[in-house]
């Protein structure tokens, strides 16, 4: 289930979205070029390792400062592989321009960074004693998805659903997509709490934390009358029809 397009008004020049995507790819390419010891050093100091905060003595023995909270943010700009970064940046490209158009550039930056930190805190609390580094932008992007669903609940999201070898294009409302996506995160996150070996290395609770932050952010902005539309373009294509059987 891959979102490939949406019908919400999109910023004509989503400067912040472009900048975040470009920054993530630059950092990823830099990491790929690092020798193995350098890569381990980057992960140790900038990825989120919950054990760093749950066991300060062990952290200090390993040369890590347990009172350095920058990894709650910096881990968001690190990725573990090509598929990881491509899927994250693709999702940001689909949902980000509409929220940048609505919130304005400063508002979008605030939402993205707050979502990143909220996602990190949720992952930290759910994996308090884990020595495994967590990294990736998916928690921040979850905040964007939640804000998108609140702001444009009736917008259509075109999903690519592979059925055997055939691609099926399914239009659903943004609200339905976000609700389904969030339900999957809750299901998988709850399962991971009781059987961590089944979590497939995915930071489900980071997704949940980011999503909740984005939902609250968008609701608060709406209630306070904040946000503004910058120059946008509206999709004028037709929504693919689902064959009836």
UniProtKB/TrEMBL annotation:
Its main location: membrane. One of its GO terms (molecular function) is serine-type endopeptidase activity. Residues 68-219 form the Peptidase S54 rhomboid domain. The keyword Magnesium does not apply. It is found in: Membrane. The chain crosses the membrane at residues 15-33, 76-95, 107-126, 132-150, 157-184, 204-226. GO terms for cellular component: membrane. It is a multi-pass membrane protein. Keywords: Hydrolase, Membrane, Transmembrane, Transmembrane helix. InterPro entries: Peptidase_S54_rhomboid_dom, Rhomboid-like_sf, Rhomboid_protease_S54. Belongs to the peptidase S54 family. This is Peptidase S54 rhomboid domain-containing protein.
